[in-house]
Amino acid sequence: MNHINYIQKTEEHVVIIEINRPNHLNALNSELILELEKSLDEISHQKEIRSVIITGTGDKAFVAGADIKEFKDFGIKQGLELSQVGKQKLFNKIAFFNKPVIAAINGYALGGGLELALSAHIRIATENAQLGLPECSLGLIPGYGGTQRLPRIIGLGLAKEMILTGKMIKANEAHAIGLVNHIFPKEELIEKTIKIAKSFNTKSPESLCAAIKSINHSFNKDGDSIESHEFSKLFKTTNFKEGVSAFLEKRKPIFNK
Ligand code: COA
Question: What's the gap in Å between 110 CA and the centre of ligand 1?
Answer without folding.
Answer: 10
